[in-house]
Amino acid sequence: MISGTMRLPLFACLLFIGAFSLVGSTDSCFAPQEQPAEREGLARLVATCTKCHEDVCTEWKGTLHAQSWTDPVFQAAIADRPDKGESCAPCHAPQELMLTGFGKLPLARKSDREVGVNCVSCHMKGNRYFGPFDSTGHGGVDADASYRKADLCLSCHGQPEARAEHDQGSSYLVGTAAKDGQTCQSCHMPAAQRKLVTSPTIKEKYTIGEQACRVHSFSGARRGEVVRGAASMIAAFKSDQLEVVLTALTGHALPATEGRTVRLKIGFRDAAGVSVGEAYRAWRHGADALPATGPVTISFPAGAAQKAQLTLEQELPKVPGRDAAIIQAIAECEATR
Ligand code: HEC
Ligand code: HEC
Ligand code: HEC
Ligand code: HEC
Ligand code: HEC
Predict the structure, then answer these.
(1) Same domain, residue pair 179 and 53
(2) Which ligand is nearest to the CA of 73?
(3) Nearest CA to ligand 1 atom 30
(4) Quick check: CB of 156 below 6 Å from ligand 1?
(5) How far, in Å, from the CA of 147 to the mean position of ligand 1?
(6) Domain final residue pick, 219, 242, 266
(7) Residues 201 and 82 in one domain
(8) Domain annotation covers residue 204
(9) Residue 110 within any structural domain of the chain
């Protein structure tokens, strides 16, 4: 498909050059061939970052970015695909983001796929290093304000046409957190005051002080982080109804991704505390999700119930090697007449 669409304009260009070789510039005709060759020795290069940026490397290794190709859930998902995951590689095994630009779908990598989404994907282009501020490391790091914006993340997390299942971007861009100036980094890379170079062997060489940094934790529900408090919940009886107000506090729709289910369970009781009924409601990724744009009010028939106990939870799908689905609590509350 890709080679087909690329061959056609090149063929057209060659005809064009043949006929009008004396007229105008032909630069644009050869644009497809100017795409840089894929970097060699990527895994080795990523391993060198550890020597000086030990803290950041340890954090990153614990995340699904480091495992975006080896992740057993991902591997199970590509096992039965005719293309064996080729179409997934732009985000699960990307070349440097800066080759296409932040906010645009990255190019796929052919080699070293097991190093996932790594330091080089986000911080290098060719031999140059880029980061949130100017610094003196490795011949100088070029400051780029985009590191503090959502665009960098949207390269993969906001490509609804390439992969709607893994899109947090569309709901983030219209949500209240984005309007308040919060980025993906605000919630998934907690702020810290620390040194950029932390390594027992090398730190003596550098006398660089602490800076306002962000931890590369990329907290996520698969690792049990950030889920409690991901939404707020208030409930009150209004005549024969129970009115529930839910507000996603995620910055994007909740659940954030395919396969998760967010579930509200309500247990109604009479004055003596005896169960008189139950109610239930579920949300899934996509049009069905809890929106990031503000509170949602839902009413449930409550009859003559005097009390209601509410639980909001998220269920993650079963993963290979684990028998049961994981249920994570988001919020609880009670209402009494
Ligand atoms: C998914 C993209 C991504 C990956 C992967 C990544 N970083 Fe970063 N890195 C960022 C962003 C975004 C910032 C800016 C954080 C901020 O606002 O301070 C950053 C900041 C930094 C900084 C500056 C200090 C700071 O915290 O602001 C260093 C040093 C750094 N990264 C090193 C690394 C190393 C080493 C790796 C690999 C182990 C790595 N990064 C992997 C996105 C990434
Ligand atoms: C020999 C030690 C060393 C190695 C190896 C090393 N760095 Fe650095 N790096 C530094 C120093 C020193 C700084 C500057 C620290 C400062 O100014 O506070 C730095 C700063 C950075 C920053 C700074 C962010 C900014 O905005 O200024 C990034 C990003 C970074 N390195 C990425 C990497 C990556 C990616 C690798 C691996 C490919 C790597 N570094 C390997 C020493 C090293
Ligand atoms: C090159 C593509 C790419 C970029 C850029 C990227 N991510 Fe990811 N991210 C992924 C993939 C792929 C996964 C999931 C891997 C898996 O589950 O197999 C992921 C997983 C995550 C997770 C869950 C991690 C966990 O360990 O639970 C969070 C949170 C996340 N990304 C946030 C961010 C943020 C914030 C940024 C921007 C600073 C960002 N990502 C940039 C591709 C990317
Ligand atoms: C446009 C970028 C992009 C493409 C293309 C892409 N993914 Fe992803 N994928 C992501 C991001 C970002 C995440 C992490 C956030 C999320 O789970 O929504 C992710 C996460 C996943 C996960 C983990 C979900 C979980 O429950 O934790 C699986 C499995 C997965 N992708 C499978 C695939 C498969 C299979 C393909 C190819 C058919 C593919 N992806 C193509 C960006 C992409
Ligand atoms: C206001 C804080 C906030 C902002 C802003 C935010 N998130 Fe989240 N995000 C959360 C919380 C809390 C969760 C956990 C609930 C869940 O799993 O849906 C979450 C979940 C996720 C997940 C699912 C992780 C997993 O493994 O289940 C991904 C991926 C993600 N966010 C990526 C992003 C990206 C990309 C952006 C920017 C476009 C972003 N987030 C902005 C708070 C935030």
Answers:
(1) yes
(2) 4
(3) 56
(4) no
(5) 8
(6) 219
(7) yes
(8) yes
(9) yes
pLDDT > 60? residue 16: no
**Cα gap 306→43, rounded to integer Å:** 62
pLDDT in tens, 147-206: 999 999 999 999 999 999 999 999 999 999 999 999 999 999 999 998 888 776 665 556
This prediction's pTM: 0.91
Tell me, yes or no, whether 10 lies in a domain. Answer: no
Residue-range definition of the domain harbouring residue 136 = 42-219
Structural domain count of the chain: 2
Whether residue 34 is predicted with pLDDT greater than 60 in this model: the reply is no
- How far, in Å, CA of 35 to CA of 326, rounded? 44
Reduced to 3 states (helix: H, G, I; strand: E, B; else coil), residue 157 is helix
Question: Does residue 131 share a domain with residue 80?
Answer: yes
Q: Which of 2, 73, 92, 159 to mutate to test the pocket of ligand 4 (most atoms within 8 A of CB)?
A: 92
User: Any idea what DSSP says for residue 308?
Assistant: E
Hey, is 227 helix, strand or coil? coil
**What's at 253, amino acid-wise?**
A
Using DSSP, state whether 72 is helix, strand or coil: helix
Cβ atoms of 68 and 61 within 8 Å: the answer is no
* Those residues with Cβ within 8 angstroms of residue 155's Cβ, 6 or more apart along the chain or in another chain: 91, 94, 97, 100, 102, 103, 104, 105, 106
Closest C-alpha to ligand 1, atom 17: 148
